[in-house]
Amino acid sequence: MIRRLVLAVAVMLTAAACGSGPSVTEDGLTKITVGVIPIVDVAPVYLGVQKGFFAEQRLELELQTAQGGAAIVPGVVSGQFQFGFSNTTSLLLASAQGLPVKAVASGVASTGEPGKDFGAVVVAADSPIKTARDLAGKKVAVNTLRNINTTTVGNVVAADGGDPSAITYVELPFPDIAPAIARGDVDAGQLVEPFLTIATGQGDRQVVSNYAGTAPGLTVGLYFTGSQQDQAVVRAFTTAITRSMEYASAHPDEARAALSTYTKIDPAVQAALVLPKWPSTVDRASVQRLADLAQKDGLLPRAPDLNVLLP
Amino acid sequence: MIRRLGLPAVLIGVWWLLSAGSTSFFWPPLSVIARTFPATWTLDPILHDVLPSLARLALGYTIALLAGVTLGVAIGSSATLRACCEPALEFFRAIPPPVLIPVIALFAGYTGWTSKIITIALGCLWPILLNTVDGVRAVDEVLRDTARSYRFGRLAVLRHVVLRGAAPRIVTGARQALSLGVILMVISEMFGADRGLGAAVVQFQRGFAIPQMWTGIILLGLLGVALSALFHLAERRLFAWRSDS
User: Fold this and answer.
1) Searching chain B, which residue's CA lies closest to the CA of residue A100?
2) Structurally, how many domains does chain B consist of?
3) Residues A202, A142 share a domain
4) What's the predicted TM-score (pTM) here?
5) In a domain, A15, yes or no
6) For labelling alongside B24, which of A40, A44, A67, A182 has CA 20 to 30 A away?
7) Which chain B residues are Cβ-neighbours of A147 within 8 angstroms?
8) Which helix (H) or strand (E) is A33 found in, with range?
């Protein structure tokens, strides 16, 4: 029994030690695993695989969904995924803690149009909260505490003359935020698409677009890799994902259609939701802005060196 | 005492040696974790994370204890009640409380203490309730009859015969419930929380503050040990009358 157990552990360890890393398929494609979050932001990847942009670069993608950047970053660093998608602030935190993460392409960005962005703070229709300033002293739900949504909400509240330190943030998953507002458990909530369209469809009112209000072309998310990556594979991935994002930007209807291949989404919401921007380059100034905000809120122990993180 | 501390000391030593000089980001050396500990758990997080968590645990656990023993005695004493309740009990005990968290939130609020206490109480209830039912059923009928024939009142029978007879099983259930309660205390804070020990550990992990995350896990373990020691102490006090304990 013990011998069998030792054997099993040994096999597991060996498998863990040499199981990952890109392999080459029969038709000469390099197989890579990409960690993504099943949200609107990553529609271009799914569209790009459909359109064959990755196969053109001799890549075969396996897309693995995870809860969020906090789960994808360790996956990429340990080699379980070769590439991943994460919000910019999580990557800044990881980079500042010394994790070897390197952005390879822009991921998703704000539309830059207040009121017509893919992320915003919403309140109940009859709420006394009219502008960002009124959020001070209130309870605001976010999907992750101490991350991009708290720093950007704090920023737009401060910009409107409110005291961001007086906001109480509560962590709730996106689907639970609108019900919590309806019950009155929280005064407001930060939502992204498609939850934003669902909430406004139920009568909630947008107060402020926290991404567009922070920087017009705010780079909200990035594709990244770890340190042990073959440079040729990185170049191929960057080319393919950039092409995919350009295609998705030029063909928004196809990007919308791609959503239903990886999420369960109501067709009415799918048609109505605000698509984000998928720019082909990282807006460096906006990443610096996010870094400054994170440092101001005490999320970063020291100022991050953007040259380490950004391509 | 030496025998008790032997294994933990060996385990800590092995961890210390194996992790010394570790360069893996997610497995920092134990020496680094130990150095991080005092800086992480200062007065502010103890007052605003640890104590509220423990207070919720205490409240939820107490509710489960009172409800579990009361219901357990009632169900255990009455064959009719038992027959009526058993299918329902089996149904509810099979539902893991973490699954119910979003449902509890709908009724008891997404934020605040109520839904978290309900989650803890619901999880702790089952081992106490089921063990009490079994313990009460196992009380010797002859003992009950004897007590009654000596004209013990209902309350006296309950107190001196039923509860005392069922006590060992109740304690077993209460001990199981305590460890469940610690787990549920952490899980309940992963949803709709702003502060708390479980919430703090998750936030450290998300911020890639890995040594700090490990200190939180160690603190949870230490709390588990302390609570179990406290339980042992209470048990000894309560059952001082029993010759075999």
Assistant:
1) B25
2) 1
3) yes
4) 0.80
5) no
6) A67
7) 206
8) strand A30-36
